[in-house]
Amino acid sequence: MISFIGSAWALLLGMMLLQVGNGMQGTLLGIRGGIEGFSTMEMSLVMSGYFAGFLFGSRMAPDMIRRVGHVRVFAALASLISAVLILYPVLADPYAWGAGRVLIGFCFSGVYVTAESWLNNAADNSNRGKALSLYMVMQMLGIASAQAMLLLGDPKGFVLFIIPSVLVSVAFAPILLSVSPTPAFDRTKPMNLRELMNVSPLGCVGMFLLGGVFSAQFGMAPVYGAEKGLDLEQISIFVSCFFISAIVLQYPVGWLSDRMDRRALILAAALIIATGGLIGMLFGGAFFLLCLAALLIGGLSNPLYSLLIAYTNDFLRHEDMAAAAGGMVFINGMGAVAGPLLTGWIMGVAGAWGFFLFIAFLGFAMAIYALYRMTQRAAPEVDKTESFAMVSPTASALAVEYAQEYAIETAQEEAGT
User: Fold this and answer.
1) What pLDDT score does 381 carry?
2) Do 149 and 24 contact (CB within 8 A), yes or no?
3) Max CA distance (Å), the chain
4) Phi-psi map region of 310: left, alpha, beta (phi>0 left; psi -120 to 50 alpha)
5) What's the sign of the alpha-carbon dihedral 380, 381, 384, 388?
6) 319 phi, psi to nearest 5 deg
7) Alpha-carbon distance 235 to 280, whole Å?
8) What is the 3 state secondary structure string of 275-288?
9) Which of 334, 335, 311, 105 has the alpha carbon at shortest distance from 213?
């Protein structure tokens, strides 16, 4: 593992800096949009743009890499990200911001695909699981620490937009100067969605609903904070709570996942997310309870992503897992595109507390469906279930595929095959 860190530290550091820039721009737009007088619906369109671009980019990036190579794709997308970040305060218009968010989502998707192929190439099967886990932790640390960076300037000015642009530009320098030779690139074709739905209805429905939960917290949390009249420091703390708890609870949820009926754990996680939504709805006026709501929602929604993939794998042959991973990521992406739009509409009708109403509704919907599915078929025996592989909703489908391949290889080694 030490040798891996020695060879991949620049890549890990660079990706963390990229996530700092990404996390800053998402929260900053939510705050600046309120200052500019954008409506909640306009901001929901802006925030949804990132997930639409990410979903589109996940389909296009592999073809781009095969055509012109990793380095060119990486450098070109980096330049576009940095340019869009610096243009936000100049083009203070919701439609311009929406187009910028689509472009940034597209670019980050391509950047992740490229970086994750390099990461996988730098690791071997003895440390691949730890390498992927470290990569996900670095991503979450970047997003969480980005919220503290918001206190370095005035959201009404330009400085806070310049900082993420500079961080993104700086992040690419060590990566491009130190990466190992370009790896071979091959992407698994996603499984047919109807076939995937037949294999695991709970996995598919849960992934779609979770996409809405994650995109709401990632995109609309700062919009909620601005509408509630929170100051900059409070918004920074509130948003960071979603991601700090995600880092803390990944391992405990994974540990439980390998030792109990995963449907029961999905049910419990969904109920805790819904409870967080109810706390935010009813007691959002108390900042401590607002942060508690964020901790509950973020702490369970992020590991639930990995849990749903692991549960779906329980009903798949090893050779189908990588293809199913691509389909699951696509389903999650569809939910993520819809999440900010529906959240914005509900907040426009009901007020700021509609943010938590939407999350609570999705949490209860997932819990009810999980309970229903528990009556439809028996749970797999715990000792025959697939291993839990830590994956973040911010990663591309490629990282999910690599995680599944690692889990398969580990299971085969343990079985002596």
Assistant:
1) 64
2) yes
3) 63
4) alpha
5) positive
6) -70, -15
7) 14
8) HHHHHHHHHCCCHH
9) 335
Q: Residue 360's pLDDT is what?
A: 96
The one-letter code for the residue type at 118 is W
How large is the average pLDDT for residues 324-350? 87
Average pLDDT over residues 113-123: 71
Instruction: Tell me the residue type at 182.
Output: T
Q: Are 89 and 158 in contact (CB under 8 A)?
A: yes
Distance of alpha carbon 33 from alpha carbon 347, whole angstroms: 15
Give whole-number Cα distances, 104 to 57, 84, 136, 163, in Å: 10, 7, 20, 16
* pLDDT tens per residue, range 214-256: 899 888 999 999 888 888 899 999 999 998 888 888 778 877 8
Closest by Cα among 158, 172, 220 to 34: 220
Mean pLDDT, residues 301-326 taken together: 78
CA distance 129 to 312: 19
Question: Tell me, what's the pLDDT at 101?
Answer: 93
> Mind listing the pLDDT tens digit for each residue in 32-89?
988 888 888 999 999 999 989 888 887 777 778 778 777 778 788 888 998 899 999 8
CA 154 to chain centre: 27
| Amino acid, res. 250 | Q
* pLDDT at res. 387: 61
The label of the residue with tokens 């996988």 reads 120
